[in-house]
Amino acid sequence: MQGSAGELADLLARTAMRDRAAFKLLYTRTSAKLFGVALRILKDRSEAEEALQEVYVKIWQRADRYQAGGFSPISWLVAIARNHALDVLRARKPVADDLDAALDLADAGPNPEQATVRSGERARIEACLDQLDTDRADAVRGAYLDGYSYEELASRHSVPLNTMRTWLRRSLLKLRECLSA
Amino acid sequence: MSAETIGSGGEDGDAIRIGEYALGLLPAQEAAALARQIAEEPALAAELRFWQSRLSDLDEEFAEVSPPAAVLPAIEKRLFGSAEARGGLWESLGFWRGLAAAGVAVAVLSLGAHMLRPVPVDPDAFAVQLVAALNAQEGSGVQFVALFDAETGNVRITSLSGEPVPDRDFELWYIEAGSDPVSMGVVPLDARTEIPLGPADRARLTPGTVLAITLEPQGGSPTGDPTGPVVAAGPATPI
């Protein structure tokens, strides 16, 4: 269960002051979300568990860098988890894509309950993604949510690498206009 | 590489390239070079914040998955050495809160009246007096009785049974339902201790507030929160 933004900000502040009980509570409140991030990107349970450990070590060490007023606490924490998972993913030796594992997780979207509490902000990026062709919106999502590289995106969408780059860059330009409007 | 886009892009090129960076699509070397550039150019940093904040609205799509129970102890071991591995249930804040919320069954009546003496009896005083029998938990054999007199603002705590533990101290806490434990200091065995409380603490010691004793490193918890096992606990009851 995630805590409120206020509670998480408080726990982060206390963690920055080396309060172990607060850190433990922060873990209790946020680890399921961050594990979900690591699992979705790494698609491997034991790698995701190892990544989660490293992510919380970083959180303990960097909690003082969280500044209220920028990102919500959970966005900041998700960004740490996502960036770490991407680092692990990119450092991996190229292995045959584990499609079975990928399929297990491919549809791990929000459950119906979560879906009903989607925020207005979320609706906004959804609306902007909806303005793109489905393929291209999926490529943006795949890059953000699954951490796919250009190469993976190209092979998943069965298009040449340069085509994928062009798709994505054009999509980003359109997204930026839409999101800035 | 993407030099053609980067070189010719101007404002849009920067926006796209930072969007790619935020998505994690740039090759490592290019990403590192861009990170240095972002650190130096506020306009680029603003562009990155734009992308990060807008993209983070997709975070809801990351489904929550409970990690295995072994992960947290492994993290604590990496950060704090093995110290935090001890304790388990007793360290969990949930336990403390449950304790305070449930109101542990009290055995005040079983305490002989002599244990409560000397109670400052003043028939004219309407000030609240609370007593808490801190019963042994998990076979610790440690028992205390605490008396709080709202008029003097003192908590008097007396040990009834229990053996000292080498290199450890007993620390007294009060826990309001839904709040973190608050330390009232280290308490000795074989002695009666008077603990003066400040106005804020006095106001929070009310019927139902749980008093508890934990086993802590010498001198008390190093963190300000309980770190050791609960050896005795009981709720405050008006007398």
UniProtKB/TrEMBL annotation, chain A:
Gene3D superfamilies linked: 1.10.1740.10, Winged helix-like DNA-binding domain superfamily/Winged helix DNA-binding domain
Family per record: Belongs to the sigma-70 factor family. ECF subfamily.
InterPro entries: RNA_pol_sigma-70-like, RNA_pol_sigma-70_dom, RNA_pol_sigma70_r2, RNA_pol_sigma70_r4_t2, RNA_pol_sigma_r2, RNA_pol_sigma_r3/r4-like, WH-like_DNA-bd_sf
Statement: the UniProt record of this protein carries the keyword Lipid metabolism: no
Domain of life: Bacteria
GO process annotations (BP): DNA-templated transcription initiation
Record-annotated RNA polymerase sigma factor 70 region 4 type domain positions: 123-175
Name of the molecule in the record: Sigma-70 family RNA polymerase sigma factor
Sorted UniProt keywords: Sigma factor, Transcription, Transcription regulation
Species per Swiss-Prot/TrEMBL record: Arsenicitalea aurantiaca
Organism lineage: Bacteria, Pseudomonadati, Pseudomonadota, Alphaproteobacteria, Hyphomicrobiales
TrEMBL record, chain B:
Species, as recorded: Arsenicitalea aurantiaca
Record-annotated Anti-sigma K factor RskA C-terminal domain positions: 100-230
Transmembrane segments: none
Gene Ontology molecular-function annotations: sigma factor antagonist activity
Organism superkingdom: Bacteria
Gene Ontology terms describing biological process: regulation of translation
GO cellular component: plasma membrane
One Pfam family recorded for the sequence: RskA_C
Region (Disordered): 216-239
Name used for this protein in its record: Anti-sigma factor
InterPro entries linked: Anti-sigma-K/W_factor (IPR051474), RskA_C (IPR018764)
